Amino acid sequence: MATEQDDKEVDDLIDPISELPGFEETESRIAVLGHPIHAMSVAFPVALTFCVLGADMLYWWTGDAFWARAALWAAGTGFLFGMLAGLSGTAELLLVSGIRARAPAWTHFIIAVTLLALLGANWGYRLYGYEQAVLPYGLMLSGLCVLVVSFTGWHGGKLVFDYRLGTSKGS
Ligand code: HEM
User: Fold this and answer.
1) Which of 25, 62, 126, 150 has its CA at 20 to 30 Å from residue 168's CA atom?
2) What's the pTM value of the predicted model, to 2 decimals?
3) Where are the domains of the chain?
């Protein structure tokens, strides 16, 4: 049974990370009139990643080269917009002390960099023959990209809605 002494010892425990100066500073710095650029820019790579999978499946179904070309463009623009979103996210991570101090922000960084590598591979592979690239490896890569982008987006949402990062001071 927990005694009063035990309760006091638990109360005395201090998370050393929360003692860091600037731990409470979690508001977005990379923003336009208070609107975080990262949150605004991630919609593009997320949507384009789903478009690549859709175009690949339509190519598989119809055999129409148009869909293989659409997948090539969606893969390329998805990768480039992903890099832009990654730049704004990285600037936020490095410049905002309260974001930098929290482990989940670094977890998101690692998942997101994995995603960017996969998006780049999915685009680069198609540059050497966009029709032949679709079946089977292009389609498989697109499926993997959709899984990883979903995880990245879900985890980014956790940073905002659970940890209140990029929103206001004092999370
Ligand atoms: C590569 C480096 C990246 C870093 C360091 C990073 C960092 C962050 C941080 C700190 C936040 C909290 C909100 C803020 O401060 O703006 C966030 C949110 C988010 N991130 Fe990233 N991010 C990266 C890349 C990406 C990529 C590539 C995607 C998806 C394609 C992504 C998707 C999201 C989403 C969906 C949110 C939630 C936005 C909201 O609901 O407002 N992130 N990210």
Assistant:
1) 150
2) 0.91
3) 29-161
